DNA sequence: TAACACGTATTC
DNA sequence: GAATACGTGTTA
């Protein structure tokens, strides 16, 4: 809607939109400038607010009464978005782009890393802002609550996030105290485990390719559990938005394999023929194996059930995951899935693990 | 076509 | 064994 955009541009002086709703649904600076469904966006804000309400943020946790499943999830959810520097203080945990454009920056922001672009200095840090390292895991002193932020989601409004340069260990929040990050609640999110506990090895198994490193503590790398590690291409570090090449450090020092269908029960790392398929399954072969969530699409990265969709409401009988958490890949027909690499990305060869 | 129901695989 | 979630047939 051109009128909306022109309205926004004339009422901002620094790129921020001061007319809340417009800001909530537009994503200036995102390149594509998509317009999100407002309801969906608000729902995401609400879920995030609920998440913080149940974990470590002093908020009026009214939502938790309405969404018991969310509360349950929140209890088992570690502070993936540390200290409010990323999430509540001005940037939604889902980032500005991520539910539309699966690019690296979005994922990086989500998993605790600031987008590595033109950010030499934080934007106008609030007064008396402590040094980043000192307060990294602490709630932002100026936080006013998640859903109240009309500027949430604006990529450039991430005041208070510390700067991470695009090289060296700073890339991985070396300032983190990893124990702080993970042991506050003693365990990690089930979804995170499901992503990481695959002791499978689609990349060669047994860490042969440097992917599984059973005795290599992530902390030594300054890698907080939950941080996705993106293997940069061997050519000039070009960000290649291939979600299948994300990796994630976890408590178990394992990485999320880029095999989407890790096999837990047998030693075969990648999809194999499954003898029995579900009720209606034809049992015609490997393609009928139950698929796994991709783990990197926007719904997969969502940690909290909405609690209100039909799937949540019919948890017992429906046996379905929350609608808002349903993997985009799984929504597609099983036969229509394109495997791992887009044509422009030479799988594997273009990536390497760098530490 | 979306929502629902159910069988079943998977994980804890 | 319970909880979760995928796949698919049925129904509105």
Automatic annotation (TrEMBL):
Polar residues: compositionally biased ranges: 169-180, 259-277
Biological process terms in GO annotation: Wnt signaling pathway
UniProt main location, coarse: cytoplasm
Keyword Zinc: yes
Domain CXXC-type: 287-328
Stretches with biased composition (Low complexity): 6-15
The keyword GTP-binding appears for this protein: no
Assigned keywords, A-Z: Cytoplasm, DNA-binding, Metal-binding, Wnt signaling pathway, Zinc, Zinc-finger
Full protein name: CXXC-type zinc finger protein 4
Gene Ontology CC: one annotated term: nucleus
Taxonomic source organism: Oncorhynchus tshawytscha (Chinook salmon)
Coiled coil: none
Biased composition (Pro residues): 123-133
GO molecular function, one term: zinc ion binding
Gene that specifies this protein: LOC112239380
Annotated stretches, region: Disordered: 117-201, 259-289
Positions spanned in the full protein: 108 to 462 of 462
Cellular compartment(s): Cytoplasm
